[in-house]
Amino acid sequence: MLERMFEKTLWSSRFIVILAVIFGLIGAVSLFIVASFDIYDTAKYVIMTYINHEHPDHFHENIVSGIIGAVDLYLIGVVMLLFSFGLYELFISEIDPAKESDHDEAQLLAIHSLDQLKDKISKVIVMVLVVGFFQKVGHTQYNGALDMLYLALSITAVAVGLYFLGKVGKSH
C-alpha cells in the first residue's frame, strides 16, 4: 500500500511541469509583443524619416537591424512555444484540438519524444544564431579585401551548416 501511494504521488508530480508550460507561454507572448513593438517603432522611424525628408547616416542598416532584431525575438518566441507545447504533450497530455485537426501545423507542433523536442528547438536556436550573425554583419565595417574574404568565408560556413542541418533527420 505504501509503495502504491508513493508511485501515485511520484506519477502526479509530473504536473509540476505545468509551471514551465505556463511561464514558457508567457515568455513567448512577451517576446511576440516586444518584437511587434520593435517592428512598429522601425516602421514609424521609416515613415517619419521620409515625411521629414531626412537622410540619416546608416539609415538602411538601422532599418534592417531593427527588423532582423525583431525576427530574432519572434524566433526565440517560437522556441518558447515549441518548448511549452512539447513539455505539455510529453508530461501532461496530448493536445486534443491538435489531434482533431488534420492541418500541417498540428504536425509541426506534435512532439512525441524528448529527442524530437530537442531537435525542433535546436533547429530554431540555430536559426536564431544565424539571424544574429547577419544582424552583426550588417553593422560591421569592412576595411579591405581580407575583411571581405572573411565575410565571404563566414557566409559560406553558415550556408554549409544550414545545408547539413536541413539533412539531419531526413532519410533518402
3D structure, described in words:
With 172 residues, the protein is mainly α. The radius of gyration is 22 Å and the shape is elongated. It has helices at 2-12, 17-51, 59-92, 96-100, 104-109, 114-138, 145-167. The longest helix has 35 residues, at 17-51. The relative contact order is 0.10.
Summarize the structure.
It is built from 7 helices and no strands. The protein has helices at 2-12, 17-51, 59-92, 96-100, 104-109, 114-138, 145-167.
Topology:
Blueprint: H1 2-12, H2 17-51, H3 59-92, H4 96-100, H5 104-109, H6 114-138, H7 145-167
Helix pairs in contact: 2-3, 3-6, 6-7
Number of strands: 0
- Quick check: average pLDDT? 84
Beta-strand content bin: under 5%
Based on helices, strands and strand pairing, what is the structural class?
A: mainly alpha
Q: Which term fits the overall shape?
A: elongated
Number of helices: 7
Major β-sheet, in short? Answer: none
Subunit arrangement of the protein: single chain
> N- to C-terminal separation?
52 Å
State the helicity in percent bands: over 70%
Summarize the helix and strand pattern as letters: HHHHHHH
pLDDT < 50 runs, ≥5 residues:
none
- Taking Cα atoms only, what radius of gyration do you get, to the nearest Å? 22 Å
